[in-house]
Design goal:
The protein is an alpha+beta fold. 57% of the residues lie in helices and 7% in strands.
């Protein structure tokens, strides 16, 4: 190749050295590159024929330069670059001329001009970008925007943490202190029984702290504080989720069923024992053959007036109580949901307290318990199946707030309708659909903290010759995690709102609260599943290792999407509630009200569907909360109206109402989701408007904008089909989502730090500071 002796005697040929370096830098000379260089050499009148032959020999694809020769070329080229200001953005020919002059070039000014003019276009031919040529030889001098992106904090992390904790800060701090104690160090074992016993012991320690009885009245050992109970559940979820579920089954499902469905005699007899875990219990509702359809359960409790007793019986294998937490090992009593039979008549679903073990753990007569065994997750919880064989209990064990049997042996209830009584009874138990999404949100926060901290530290790839950069600087990585971080914050505020609505509920509010709980439970737990999967993948092989805890979080929360109600079924409940409200709204309007509604709809369509609106790509417009909220409201309203019209058309056409709902299920799911998404956005915006700290307000605003626009982007197909947006507008939304992901990335680490998750609970080596 370029022999040094020949170059020394022909220094002008150094002009071509930068060109040869570039074309050989990828070790392959393409036909177009060969042609371009041959043409350029042929145009140089100052070259002798011998020199041209020599130069053409340097682009023979079968004779590439050796590695040592290639390094020597770069060393020579860099000598000339040191004489040229980088700011001048030199071309390859400029670098070559400077190199030739360093070697005492004999070219005259006219020949230099000719060389420069004829070779000035070679950069473009070789695919080089203006201003980038120098970095082909000095890649370490390149500083990219991606490299410059670093973590920064523009707000007070402690102030944001205080805002998140709100008036629950004291109890949250206390729970975190307890679960961060060495006594609660994670216990790794494949021994199922050892795992269950450890979780049980931890539950006892929590009961000793007064956490279990927190929601019960003071006269029964509690503090009468339901808000604190939910905060305890959510905070415990930064730790072992088996502990959370065991805690929830004992003090929530079992204890609250006695509290809400029982009366004073039950409260006096059982609540204090339940709160201290002296009476371990179960919540036996689900049957092998009936999960979501509670009204279809087959276990019976038949009243015998002569003995003042109830005979609880499992009539067949499909009527076994299944997946019952605390049943396999520890439970001594079960709140058992049954069909209540009095005088041969079925009065619908009621609840009866049935002892299943004695104090020594021995199964009682008539009770058969099977262990569900090892599960996909939550193996610290002892789930089991319960079979009742004509078990006799005193009638006093009937939880009789809504259904009782009087002294004459007759059924009584303050609610005459079996159907209304059933839904009223279940409505009091909606707390489970609040605790589970809040627990799932904590798991999401843990996963995001691990993945975001790791992404900020883990470096991979980078500009040629420069340092590697954090993977969190890559757009795709930001796209994967930043919208999920926005979801976590959005859900935090909406679940706080739901909890307060439930605690301060009135009878008139219950239907709306039940629907909102069902919807938020569905949205939040699906989001947990999606978040943890994305976090696992974002951490690569490290995320797959058990030591980094995402595996446990994924496995333990997977069931959240189906217990306390299957999400798909719950969203249909939301849809039916919205349709009922819609129908009532019309029935209460009267003729003039309906006409006004139609006029408002038409006016809304004219304003929102005009070309200026549907095609408006102005950034200020797209970032405006008013636009975002109206887009969510329009989608919710339009889908609801079209679902109502669809059902009406089916039923009017002679279809049975059951079949009409069945063929419209996919539509009803969208009704539910659109409603929940709108509520979440509303509550996020409300929180921002109430936030006084400027730094916190600014970062929450970015997160809220990202939440809103990422969901508009997710649903862009609907917005395009409905004519609410044009393609140019959805493209502009996508561009803004990219920018917001970029902006939020810089504050992502302090944003997850604001969750204040104890380091011992995270317990992931890849998330260590």
């Amino acid at each position: 190749m370029l022999q040094s002796t020949y170059l020394q005697s022909n220094p002008n040929l150094h002009i071509f050295l930068p060109i040869f370096y570039i074309v050989w830098s990828d070790a392959v000379l393409t036909p177009s590159e060969i042609k371009a260089i041959k043409d350029s050499i042929g145009q140089q009148k100052w070259l002798s024929e011998e020199e041209k032959i020599f130069l053409l020999d340097q682009i023979n694809p079968t004779h590439p330069p050796s590695p040592d020769e290639f390094r020597d070329w770069l060393s020579e080229i860099r000598k000339s670059l040191d004489t040229i200001p980088t700011s001048s953005n030199p071309k390859l020919v400029d670098i070559g001329i400077a190199l030739a002059q360093l070697h005492s070039s004999t070219l005259l000014n006219g020949e230099l001009t000719e060389a420069k003019e004829s070779l000035s276009g070679i950069d473009k031919t070789l695919g080089l970008i203006d201003g980038e040529v120098v970095y082909q030889f000095y890649p370490e001098k390149r500083t990219t925007i991606t490299e410059q992106q670093t973590t920064k904090t523009t707000f007070d992390v402690n102030q944001l943490a205080k805002l998140l904790d709100g008036d629950q800060a004291d109890i949250i701090k206390k729970v975190k202190a307890v679960i961060a104690d060495p006594e609660f160090k994670y216990f790794e074992t494949d021994n199922l029984q050892a795992n269950r016993e450890k979780i049980y012991q931890w539950c006892k320690q929590l009961a000793e702290q007064g956490f279990g009885s927190m929601a019960y009245p003071k006269e029964y050992g509690g503090q009468g504080d339901m808000l604190k109970y939910f905060s305890i559940m959510e905070t415990l979820s930064y730790h072992d989720l088996s502990l959370v579920i065991k805690f929830g089954v004992q003090f929530g499902l079992f204890g609250m069923s006695v509290y809400f469905l029982g009366t004073e005699k039950h409260h006096k007899k059982y609540l204090q024992q339940i709160g201290t875990l002296d009476l371990p219990g179960c919540f036996a509702m689900t049957e092998t053959g009936h999960g979501s359809n509670v009204k279809g359960i087959e276990t019976t409790a038949t009243y015998e007036h002569a003995t003042k007793t109830l005979i609880v019986n499992t009539p067949n294998e499909l009527a076994k109580k299944e997946y019952i937490g605390n049943a396999a090992v520890h439970g001594q009593m079960a709140t058992t949901f049954v069909k209540l039979i009095v005088d041969g008549k079925d009065y619908g679903v009621s609840a009866v307290l049935v002892p299943i073990r004695d104090k020594n753990g021995k199964t009682l007569p008539g009770i058969t318990i099977e262990d569900c065994g090892r599960k996909m997750g939550l193996n610290g919880v002892d789930n089991g199946k319960i079979h009742y064989n004509k078990v006799v209990v005193p009638v006093e064990n009937l939880l009789d707030r809504f259904a009782s049997i009087n002294g004459e042996g007759k059924f009584e209830s303050p609610i005459a309708s079996d159907n209304r009584r059933f839904f009223t009874m279940l409505g009091t138990l909606v707390g489970g659909r609040i605790g589970i999404p809040r627990s799932g949100l904590s798991a999401s926060k843990s996963g995001l903290t691990i993945a975001i901290r790791y992404g900020d530290q883990r470096k991979q790839f980078g500009p040629e010759g420069a340092s590697e950069i954090p993977i969190l600087n890559y757009r795709t990585h930001q796209r994967r995690l930043m919208p999920l971080l926005a979801n976590a914050y959005a859900l935090h505020f909406s679940l706080q709102y739901l909890t307060k609505r439930f605690v301060n509920r009135t009878e008139e509010d219950m239907q709306e609260i039940e629907a909102l709980a069902a919807g938020l439970k569905s949205f939040a737990t699906w989001n947990t599943t999606d978040t943890l999967q994305e976090c696992r993948e974002a951490c690569g092989g490290k995320g797959y290792l058990s030591e980094n805890r995402i595996e446990r979080l994924k496995n333990d929360t997977d069931i959240y999407t189906t217990f306390e109600g299957d999400n798909t079924v719950l969203l249909q409940l939301v849809a039916k509630s919205r349709l009922t409200e819609f129908k009532q709204e019309f029935s209460n309007m009267g003729m003039f009200g309906i006409l006004n509604f139609v006029a408002e709809q038409a006016s809304s369509s004219l304003s929102e569907l005009n070309p200026f609106f549907t095609g408006n790509t102005n950034e200020e417009h797209l970032l405006d909360f008013e636009f975002q909220l109206e887009a969510f409201r329009h989608r919710e309203r339009d889908i609801l109206i079209s679902a109502a019209q669809r059902l009406k058309k089916h039923i009017k056409g002679g279809m049975d109402s059951f079949d009409a709902f069945n063929v419209s299920q996919h539509h009803l799911i969208e009704v539910g989701l659109a409603h929940v998404e709108r509520v979440i956005l509303e509550k996020f915006i409300e929180q921002i408007n109430q936030t006084e700290d400027a730094g916190c307000k600014a970062v929450l605003t970015k997160l809220c904008q990202l939440f809103a626009l990422s969901h508009i982007e997710k649903n862009k197909g609907w917005y395009l089909e409905s004519g609410y947006m044009e393609g140019a507008k959805t493209k502009a939304v996508r561009k803004l989502v990219n920018q917001l992901c970029w902006d939020v990335r810089q504050e992502a680490v302090p944003l997850v730090d604001a969750f204040k998750i104890p380091e011992s609970c995270l317990s992931a080596p890849i998330a260590r500071r």
